[in-house]
């Protein structure tokens, strides 16, 4: 069992760090983006790896839990400890230096507290691209993005966050430092600790620095919205895009008409791109090297697809502004969803070829639970759907408290039966600990536990995230 | 301490598996490609995951070590146990089914004993590419390639083997099976066990099946040999290629004149591509999508580079045969090296920008040890050099026994000082266990040991590979 932060322990920490490291225990650190859960804790913001290490050593000595806090944008409660002994909330916000940029190596090394948009900017300043891109990029920080192996819109082309990281610096649960900040593309010297730390959601150590991979900036970029007759046609279009444009396809997002209807109903205001709203459409984004224009590539794709009956309508962006407008629609669907208020939201992935059947079976299965509006959209290129279930018009989230568990179970059972994942890109945090126990392979669960116990024997690192604390039940959400 | 395979234990295994599973304990299983080390063991070749599991359960019960044996092409002795109690050598050769191909998902699922060339062929049959490519592809098997996180010539574009794997099936050291054979592109449900098993060299479990990532086949391929005035110019050319051709650059290999001289000296016979042999040249290989010809792209690159003084001469392949001829040179340099016989070979990686200085300093440092011929070549795009040190003409490897340790130490010390890796793509096996102990970060070494002990508490999985056995010294090599 862990100990709470006591006034005496607060004094211990105050003796270790300068006054600037101490923050008020206020909302940004103790609430989540949608206001669903609140946490507790004593907030400390060290400014260096050594300061992080000194805090961790003190916590280890006193058996006090540590909740690493990065940008605070996580959606599964990994940054919030609701119950149990009051922990230290360790914010990375003051570790915000870009340590070095190596344009000739396509590498950038930074503190874990740097905001994603600042990394993107630093890459752009040297003519490179850091391709990780997601809605919260203006506030999400690198440490949390690595800790959760964040996804986003460019995974199809550039991979998840783990694919964009070459090396890490990590403060271990005993306060020692793993100096793994390599800029190497190849290094086969022992187990892959980097990928073990990435996605571990701060339960095995605190990422304090990272060497990130940059890529060449595409010479030309473009986008098209294409109406497709079905999800199956969208998948065939994806394969066709791969065959014609290769790795040049940066993003391939699917949107259902429901998302457009929500935007019309509650905003934000967007410009309707089609004369007649299709049931399904995809946003195809490309970034190409010299010698071929994005518009020509997208036109070629559209023509081939049209002849094959894979698309029924389409708009190819003729300017950067029009491309931005397409993305504005896609990126505001989550905001419209938030305004409507979901009964239950699911960040799921499936084998690509299973998606049409999943959409079909999901609709049928939910109809047996009740009457809902389903907004299914997301990163089709990655098999990652945000499958969100909403009240019918005129009713609200609060009216569906009774149905919520059944909705969630129906969706997750179906995902599991079809060999999918109940958390594609958001992670486990505390909200999905029970789901992981329910759906996780038993051998896998044993290994997760063995690794946690081996690397954090005191159990102080982000207690209750990913795996339940031995002495406590998982959080109720 | 482990127990040896006794006649009684042999009978236990014979009762578990059909007669076809038992092989003679002969050379292919007990020697390495260059004949440097020999192993020992009782060879068993199960034909299914369940059979593997039953062997492992028996070994766990009897505390008998298991050496997983895949294609036997490893160069660091990971597949050979020279000393200690006689182990079971578990060959994957009879697990050679391609289980399923999903062209629309770009996924192939296979047994771990499938030969790499057979996977490449199965991908080609459905119009896709499995881009892992290396000299031993005709005999290397998927399990070993994953176990060692093999590299090869296309890492620049497609990543190491780990980047080409979506899911794994693994028999754990207690004989239970982890069913992690997912075809998902995104799955953030707990620690990254897949990447932990990949590169663990069979010390945490036996990979029995894998879901592999396929990619679209490039529409057009091409290659060029370009003479560069220096390694620094080669790096600038690499950056220029990225800027102009983007991800279309599949391979970027550097070769020193020494390799051409060795080919001339001992063969295999190759056609000399340049009128005057340059000190350094690079082989640039591209694969492009529709709309742009590889020859045009390479010509564009050459012209820009020539004007910038980055290349002095060049030949662009005008046919597939000519491209093959370029690759024939590159791929036969290791064979020429073998015929000459190295004093010491090093599979190293460095931060890209450090390479010119490393080459300069390496030459100087070795000159203080003795007089050698250095053949430095390899995957420049990945910062991965095969930095091999040879006798002067007229002398042989055997004449240099006394100098070998000093040569190795000088090279590895320099690599380490310049933040490089002493094993870029070959792994640790048994030959580099001491090197890992010498050069590895202490915190990292502690974590490796903790993970090994947590996941293989009996220490039966590939004992002495990667980490020394607790009760035994590391192998002398």
TrEMBL record, chains A, B:
One of its GO terms (biological process) is respiratory electron transport chain. It comes from the Bacteria. The keyword Flavoprotein applies. Residues 30-217 form the FAD-binding PCMH-type domain. GO terms for molecular function: catalytic activity; FAD binding. Keywords: FAD, Flavoprotein. Its cofactor is FAD. Belongs to the FAD-binding oxidoreductase/transferase type 4 family. This is FAD-binding oxidoreductase. It comes from Yoonia algicola.
